[in-house]
Amino acid sequence: MKALNSEEFWQFACHLYNEGDMQTRLLDYQNQQAKNVNLCLLMYYLDSLNLAISLTQLNKLEQSICEFEQHVLKPLRTTRAYLKANQSEIDEYKTLRKELLSAELKLEKQQQKILIDAVNKMNLAPSATPNNSARYLP
């Protein structure tokens, strides 16, 4: 298997995220089912490349981003939600929101790099119909 490129994954993810109702669906997976959006996007990406992932490999990918998710991204999302709920009391709320969104986007890209680095250490099986997204999503 040719090594995957994190920048190519980022471009794929940005395009897919903005397609139709995908953003809403992904955020629903995140908020209602505690799924990781970047891992969802990776499953779609691997599907597009006709590469199948095993359940064991999927579990390893979840483990590879768990600490980053818990210590970096979730607290940032919590901060953004708090500021939004209290925006009338927060000086320069709009500026802070924009800066936090920018930071979050950069951190999401970093998490995608972690995922690609982990995938590149795996031996994925070529498949005409991989359906990785169904393995991760309900």
Tell me what you see in this structure.
The chain is mainly alpha-helical and 138 residues long. The chain has one domain (6-136). Helices cover 72% and strands 3% of the residues. It has helices at 6-17, 22-33, 37-48, 55-85, 93-119, 132-136, and strands at residues 51-52, 125-126. Helix 1 (6-17) packs across helix 5 (93-119). The longest helix has 31 residues, at 55-85.
Which features characterize this protein?
single chain; 138 residues; two-stranded antiparallel ribbon; 6 helices; 2 strands; 72% helix; elongated
Layout of strands and helices, then pairs:
Elements: H1 6-17, H2 22-33, H3 37-48, E1 51-52, H4 55-85, H5 93-119, E2 125-126, H6 132-136
Antiparallel strand pairs: 1-2
How many helices does DSSP assign? 6
Write down how many β-strands occur, each being a DSSP E stretch of 2 or more residues. Answer: 2
* Structural class estimated from helices and strands: mainly alpha
Order of helices and strands: HHHEHHEH
Helix content: over 70%
Strand content: under 5%
- Please give the alpha-carbon distance between the first and last residues: 28 Å
Instruction: Please state the CA-atom Rg, rounded to the nearest Å.
Output: 16 Å
